Structures are given as structure tokens and as C-alpha cells.
Amino acid sequence: MASLTATQVSALTPTEVSGLTPTHIAALTPTQFAALSATQMAAMSATGITGLTPTEIAGLTKTQLTSFNATQIGALTSTQFATLTPTQLADLTATGVGGFTATHVASLTPTQIAAMSTTHIAALSTSGIAGLTADQVPALSTTQIAAITAKEIAALSAGAISGLSTDDITGLTSTQFAAFTPEQVRALSTTQVAGLGTTQIGLLDASDLASLTPSQVAALTTTGFASLTPTQIKALSAAGITGLTESQITQMTLTQLGA
User: Strand, helix or coil at 81?
Assistant: First the structure.
């Protein structure tokens, strides 16, 4: 490969490029690498992509980056992925971002996360966004959180859910909050539970309510607890019921008591 001129490299057919091994890719000089077109970059195999060196990744142009598909992006090693600058991440297409693995997402720095557009956030796969950690969640802007789809919400780890501020949670749409799984509801801190509005409490289904711990039940505000329907009260587990505070019990309506 080293003997090829930039002109010769640019003349390689997509089929020839797809046959390049990691060793071939790693051996390309900066001049040769810069000569690769978007079409040629798109033809690289997932195996070949793993040969990209830090220098080559640093030299990737926007045109080259936008040619990568999800499979190619997904093939990047953790070391390779970490070398992408915030600007380069911002240049990726939604298709490319869809290739982020859980390991990729977990390695994102606050600066890299901030560089992601709402389109990028919505394009993350459920397996990819599952890698988001509690430490990373605070780096998400209100606009970015609003872009998280219901499917992505349901894929968030308990750790990521715990990283949401009370403002983040109250700012979720009904569709987003309704996507919470029982495991995620159980992961809410008492502070987060206390911040739930009546609309959000009304979205808790039987499985969600059954997952509430005694401390979470006790954390429901007076207004929040009063908004529970008889059906919801009945869904609380025996353990959850033990968390009822004196204030909550004394304010229960006849309808709630009848549950």
C-alpha cells in the first residue's frame, strides 16, 4: 500500500477497498488516506475499519465521516471511538450514530455528549443508549432529554434513571414517562418520587405501583398520594403499603379506603 500514489489510491474500486485488511488501512499515509472518497470510505468493511489509526481518525473529514454507516461505526474499538472529537461526532449522520454500541455511549465525555444533536439522540439504538451512565446524564440538556424516544427511555439503565434531576423527570412528556419500566420506577430516589406531578403519578400502571418500595410510597407528596385512584391504591404491594405515612392514611378518601 505504501507504494501507491494518492491518485492510485483514489482510483481503487469499492470492491477493492472492501477487501482492504486492518493492516492495509493502518499502513495508509496521511496523503493516501486523504485521497479516499466518501464512496470508498463507505465501502470499507467493518473488519477493515478496525485498522484505522488515531492519526487517520483525526484526519477524517466531514465528507468521509458522513459516509460511515451504522455497521462501520459499530465496529470501531473503544480506543478508536475515544479519539473522535466533539466536532467529528457532530458531523456523523443519524445512521452512523445508530451504530453506537453501549460501550461507545458509556465512554462519551460530557463535551462529546453536548456535541450530539437532538437528531443524534433520537437515533441511538436501544442497545446503545443502555450504556448511558448516571454520571453522564447531567450532561444532557433539556432539549436533548426531550429528544429521547419512548423506546430509548425504556432501555435506560436504573443507574441512568437515578442520574435524572427532579426537573428532568418533571419535564418528561407523558409518552416518555409512561415508557418507564417497573424496574426503572423502583430505581427512582425518594427525592425523585417526591417531585412527581399528579399527571405522572396517574400514568403509573399496576406493575409500576407494585414495584414501589415503602420509602418511595412514603415519599409521595400529599397531593400526589391524593391523586391515586382506587385501582392504583389496590396495586400497591403489601410491602409498599407499609410505607404509608400517618398523614397519607388520615387523608385517604372513602373511595381510596375501599380499595
Answer: helix
Classify burial at 20, counting beta carbons within 10 Å of its beta carbon; exposed 0-12, middle 13-18, buried 19 or more: buried
Q: Domain containing 14: what range?
A: 1-61
Last residue of a domain, one of 160, 181, 211: 160
Q: Are 44 and 84 found together in one domain?
A: no
Cell numbers given for 239: 410491602
User: What is the C-alpha radius of gyration for the chain, rounded to an integer number of angstroms?
Assistant: 25
pLDDT in tens, 54-100: 999 999 999 999 999 999 999 999 899 999 999 999 999 999 999 99
Kindly give the parts of the chain with pLDDT less than 70: 259
Q: How far apart are CA 138 and CA 160, in angstroms?
A: 10
Q: What are the Cα distances from residue 82, in Å, to 86, 98, 119, 123, 242?
A: 10, 17, 21, 19, 48
C-alpha span between 121 and 143 (Å, rounded): 10
